[in-house]
Amino acid sequence: MKEEALYKQLVDRYLDGTASLEEVEVFFQLLNEGKLDRYLEPETPVRKLTPWKRYGIAAAAALLLAVAGLVLLRRPAPEKPVVANVFKNDVSPGGNKAILTLGDGSTIVLDSAANGALTGQIVKTDGALVYKKGAEDLYNSLSTPAGGQYQVTLADGTKVWLNALSKLQYPGAFKGRERIVELTGEAYFEVAKDATKPFTVKVNGVAVGVLGTSFNVNAYNDEPEIRTTLLEGAVRVKKGASELTLKPGQQGIAGDVLTQRAADVDRVMAWKKGFFSWDAADIHTVMRQLSRWYGVEIKYEGAPTKALFGGEIGRDLTLTQVLTGLSESKVHFQLDGKVLTVLP
Fold it and tell me: How confident is the model over 61-95, as pLDDT tens digits?
């Protein structure tokens, strides 16, 4: 009696289209064995299709495929698998870290050095170096690692803030007719005024010349162009035979050619104020900045997202906090140690 109830239930589920694929397969097997004939009498809606048992196994298999297709069509399409962030660890934000290399080749790790006089003319404070007048004119260099930033006041009173993965080379004292420094990476300059000694920043074949002014230079090797943004005063940007003069609020672009445009000064200076700031930035631009500040290697899985990112987020946040915010743009990440993978 129980078996008959199950057979009847199977036929009913098949006829009303609610049978699973497994139930449809069982239906045709039992049908070919003649066990469902009594449930498919002329009064049933499928009486004109009986007796199906005469079709044999091959015909039943063909019908099963057709019915299976109909059943699949009735079912809702499977949802796209949800991609989730996978954070096996977290990474702290960067801070005041740098290495000072003196003219004699000796080095000082500044983040572990005590505050106070490092030499007779160089004093370390929290996150900054100050050169006194009268220092030797041998070239020094200040380098920040990934996740590092630092400030230095040169012997002429010029103040320089270095962003992560940057290097400034300069003399301990400017004793010639010019003040020349060399930069890789990014730095903000507040140049002390001295009409008798022009100040020049050299970077990758580009020279930025000033007398006394405030400006930012972004010259990372992995960026497509060198960008000089003027805040106050005037600067002259030269590349080869090309030259242009910037006014406050303008930006000089040294790519294949030398051009200028209006600048979003607040966005350019966000790094110095403790923010990441983006306006329709692509994923590669965002990841380059995160890589420098958190010291992580970036990898991409699949085609990189075409999402554009805008807004501000603090550089004092941990990496996973920043990534969680970026995930609102439907891009996800996997962080494993110092390797950050961008997921589709």
Answer: 333 333 333 333 333 444 444 557 889 999 999 99
The CATH-assigned architecture of domain 274-343 is 3-Layer(bab) Sandwich (3.55)
Side chain identity at residue 246, one-letter code: L
Question: 53 or 241, which is more confident?
Answer: 241
Q: How far apart are CA 92 and CA 341, in angstroms?
A: 17
**What are the extents of the domains in the chain?**
2-74, 95-175, 189-257, 274-343
231 pLDDT higher than 60: yes
Question: Distance between CA atoms of 291 and 294, rounded to whole angstroms?
Answer: 6
Reported pTM: 0.74
Q: Which CATH architecture has domain 189-257?
A: Sandwich (2.60)
| pLDDT mean across residues, the chain | 84
Contacts 24+ apart (CB under 8 A), 76-85: 83/332, 83/343, 83/344, 84/332, 85/320, 85/323, 85/324, 85/327, 85/332, 85/333, 85/334, 85/335
Helix, strand, or coil here: 260? strand
pLDDT of residue 41: 52
User: Does the fold of domain 274-343 match that of domain 189-257?
Assistant: no
Distance CA 190, CA 232 (A): 9
Q: Torsion angle of alpha carbons 114, 118, 121, 123, nearest 10°?
A: -10
